[in-house]
Amino acid sequence: MPMTGLERKAAFLYAATLERKTLETAAQDACGVGWFHLSQGILGERPLGAETRQKFAAYIGRTEDDVFGDSSTSDAA
Prior knowledge:
Blueprint: H1 5-18, H2 23-31, H3 35-42, H4 50-59, H5 64-68
């Protein structure tokens, strides 16, 4: 079962905190997008591109399928 939006957000906050980074800096460095864009995407409020999904999953140390499930095959930007 994929992670919920709140689980994804908490995992990102945890990873950023361990690196002593702000959420904005972590989002830019790890995923190449701003925190607002990323947070909406991980909560399911907007689509995330495949590359961003892959980078997000890698940043929190999980597979893309574990994080987003089968719905991660979207071609959204």
